[in-house]
Amino acid sequence: MTMTTGSEVALSGQVLLIDRDGSSARVIGASLRESMLVTPEVTVVEAGRAAAELLRQTRFDVVIADLSSLLDLATSVEDAVTRLVKLAEGALLLAVADGSSVSAALGAMRAGAHDYVAKPIDGTALAARIGELAQRHGRPRSLGAECGTGPVVADYAGFVGASSAMQFLYEQIGRVATSSAPVFITGESGTGKDVCAEALHAKGPRADRRFVAINCAAIPRDLMESELFGVTRGAFTGAHEDRKGATELADGGTLFLDEIGEMDLSLQSKLLRFLQTGAISRVGETAARKVDVRVICATNRNPMQMIAERQFREDLFYRLHVLPIHLPPLRQRPTDIMVLARHFLGRYAREEHKSFVGFAPDAAQQLTAADWPGNVRQLQNLIRRMVVMFDGGEISAGMLSAADIESQVSFPAPVEAPRSEGKRPVLPMWQQEQRIIEDAIAAYGGNISMAAAALEISPSTIYRKRQGWAEMAAAS
């Protein structure tokens, strides 16, 4: 089997499973064979040394490694994973461990593992996770969950996009929506996490009941508990009547907790208790009330990083991280840029009662060449601003540049400024740094740990800087 890097890599379904628990390995292997688009050839070994010998002889698309089975390969889990990453030559590597071993998971990800999965493992969910990681790290959907061979969908439950990344997302939403298990949505700012949550509700069996969203970052800390669980009359100054919280209001339906990572740690423990018992108590009362809700949460931050920095409870993470969904940034699906641009142009032209006839070739080229750090939201704002500023006709590059007040760097100017004395234009330091880091991540197929090692910085530095860039884009 041959394997190349980049978007043209051909995955043939070779999976290496390292697990000393034979019964667990058989169950996982059978589930993967039933769930993957390409029926995989699953090779099972019981220990790290046997896996290393096999990796020297055979190329694999995916390596699933139980961390407790690797200690014959090196004295620490981190060193063992480092050796596997080098031998795997670009394969997706998933670390598997007992749910209580977050330190081992963090070590594995520092060493280059693409993700961490806690036991017990659901094979179908694991197949979906592999497909999600393959898409995120620049590989096609060949190893994704089975999604059929139907027509390409360009508009789905509020989402617009026809790329393979979006086709996989639509299929994943369709599967996950039928369950009542918690969903953990991740993705950069502007990728549509709220749209995803509403789609999961609309496509599921609770669609006829209420969808209640609460932004954990927008509500003051001292009011968050009453907003979430409700309050009884007289519980504190200003509480003049009994009031239901978001959890009760969503009874029978869906509760969406956006920016879950911003929730105070003390309230996280109360949320965990609710998830464990299905019962809540309003602020100021002792009686428990049974509530039936499906919980969906979202964050634009790295959850494992939040756990490492003690900003997010480990036990709460495992309660919520049952069905993960990752939304790809716009820069990873460039074929959707013009689909989205035309969609927004048509919508806002109708709203403003104006007539536009599409995009000139130079305008389309500029749109597809832009980096879009603010993702779909940034593109949407730009098109709406342009429709308001101009009267109609064909969209030119000059019109787009005139409407772009957010970032002249992420959206190239139509005409290059003249250079004085033959000197190259100099970008600000933070923009050069961003380009270097993103290029390194792309060079290592999206693996932040390996990119960080190549740049001789820590992965946490990359996560922190990317978060800062996202916040700058959101604030602009």
Can you offer a commentary on this structure?
It contains 19 helices and 16 strands. By secondary structure, the chain is an alpha/beta fold. It folds into four domains: 130 residues, 3-Layer(aba) Sandwich (Rossmann fold), CATH 3.40.50.2300; 174 residues, Rossmann fold (3-Layer(aba) Sandwich), CATH 3.40.50; 72 residues, Helicase, Ruva Protein, domain 3 (Orthogonal Bundle); 56 residues, Homeodomain-like (Arc Repressor Mutant, subunit A). The strands form five sheets. Strands 2-1-3-4-5 form a five-stranded parallel sheet, with helices on both faces. Strand 4, helix 4 and strand 5 form a beta-alpha-beta unit. The chain is globular, with a radius of gyration of 24 Å. It holds the Pfam family Sigma54_activat. This is Luminescence regulatory protein LuxO.
Brief characterization of the structure:
By secondary structure, this protein is an alpha/beta fold.
